[in-house]
Amino acid sequence: MTRNYQEMTWTPERVARFWAWQSRHPEQYFTYLFGDTIVRHLTPWLNGGKHVLDYGCGTGFLIPHLSERAESVVGTDLSPESVAATNDRHGGIASFSGAFTLEALRQRPERYDIITVIEVVEHLQDRELDALFVDLRDLLAPGGMAIITTPNDENLALSEVYCPATDEVFHRYQHVRSWTAETLEQRVEQSGFAVIRAFTTDLSDAGWRRPVQALLRFAERLRGGQRAAPHLVCICRAADPRP
What we know:
8 helices; seven-stranded mixed β-sheet; alpha/beta
């Protein structure tokens, strides 16, 4: 008889503890593995953005790549440990203007031409997702753009692990929802944003620059273990920007 396991309930306290621990393992962050490739894929929308905010920056591995294309880059994250790690790691970058917790960032007067939200929305429950779009509206400069990326139609069950302490299962990277192009566009528009462009791609694809990695990825796809376009990208701006 197959047993049905209870899904973990991610309380704010559990989320905070998880990311405090996860911040000790930066090599597992998507932006650590593919930060340069992510920014290269997004360059057409990053060009011209003088002031950039990386929302949900984790331990800051996207910061150096964004800093090559902007006059000022700021990071923000829910985890104080991640914010501290970002500031320690990148304090010597001239265009890096610091990382702040979300609470601290909301008190600052700066507004941003571009806000990157890289692999964040799959981690957010409804309440936090609503807060994200409020933050985007409040933090974007007039006419500014948000760049949202997330896994494409992820099968969450494939990454579940079991916690013997609570007798629950949870996604090993704390993903709580899966997005398709249709559901992401719908949610963005429902939140008062106009979609400029939405598309699927592979943000980890470095092409000819990493031939061995490309060959391994191709072999994995042949085995059915990875889709050709594993990521969604949505470029949007506030439909009725605040003055």
